[in-house]
Amino acid sequence: MDNFLIKYLSERLQEKEESPESLNPVITISREFGCWGNRIAEILCQKLLERSKVSGLNQPWKWITREIMEKSALDLKVSPEYISDIFNAKQKGTLADIILSFGSQYLSNEKIKATITNVVKSYCKDGYVIMVGRASNIILKDYPKALHVKLFAPFEWRAECYRERQNLTVTQSRIQVKEMEKRRAEFLQFFRGSLHEDEIFDLCFNRKTINENEIVDTIISILESKKYI
Q1: pLDDT of residue 104
Q2: How many other CB atoms are found less than 10 A from the CB of residue 110?
Q3: How far is CA 129 from CA 111, 146, 165, in A?
Q4: Sheet bearing 146-152, strands edge to edge
């Protein structure tokens, strides 16, 4: 008990010592299905690296998405496919179904949630990271130097983008996009609870009307104005 108390007090003291000024920036990108956040993250990361190099700061920007899933699976000692089911809600209708799929190795909701939370926070420890999805915006909602971005677009626009990418019929695309929307909503609700969406995001972009470079340049401009970079 004494060792536990000492460890707890030490961690709390370390948290207090980390002032916002000592932290490095983090960007989270959430997206409605079909808005392709990975492409935005890739372009943004490249531009931030180029800007950092020119300015002589050499900030080690990187972007991640699947890495969170893979690290969570490793920490939970299960295969990445199980965590993929949770993150992407594939093949299972509810979180309870997903948990039951672990078979004899029961993992509680809270253990899964705590593991994913710890993995996301570990990736932002050094900052200069862009996280795509994985509930990172909710987990890091109180991180002082985080900029939370959401990509959205009308349903028909997203369905058409998905149809072209996957070579589907119009009907197939609409059905699959609606199904993925439902499953993602279930996963996010698992983390968000009663927290309203308006409390999470700093910037929202309509992918139908604002192109990739406009989105990226706006994000960089905001980072500069807030003196995060």
Answers
A1: 40
A2: 8
A3: 25, 10, 27
A4: 62-64, 129-132, 26-31, 146-152, 203-206
* Whole-angstrom distance, CA of residue 114 vs CA of residue 56: 38
Structure tokens at 80: 């990445």
Query: Is residue 196 classed as helix, strand or coil in its secondary structure?
Result: coil
Q: What is the predicted pLDDT for the residue at 197? A: 67
The alpha carbon dihedral of 94, 110, 14, 72 has a sign of: negative
pTM: 0.77
Q: Do you know the residue count of the chain?
A: 229
Strand 129-132 relative to strand 146-152: parallel, antiparallel, unpaired? unpaired
Whether 191 and 139 have beta carbons less than 8 Å apart is answered as yes
- How far is 34 from 101, CA to CA, in rounded Å? 28
pLDDT at 76: 76
**What are the backbone angles phi and psi of residue 206, rounded to the nearest 5°?**
-85, 110
DSSP secondary structure letters along 133-189: STTHHHHTTT-TTEEEEEEE--HHHHHHHHHHHHT--HHHHHHHHHHHHHHHHHHHH
Averages of pLDDT over runs of 10 residues in the chain (229 residues) are 50 51 89 92 96 89 85 76 55 45 53 85 92 89 93 96 93 93 77 70 96 96 94
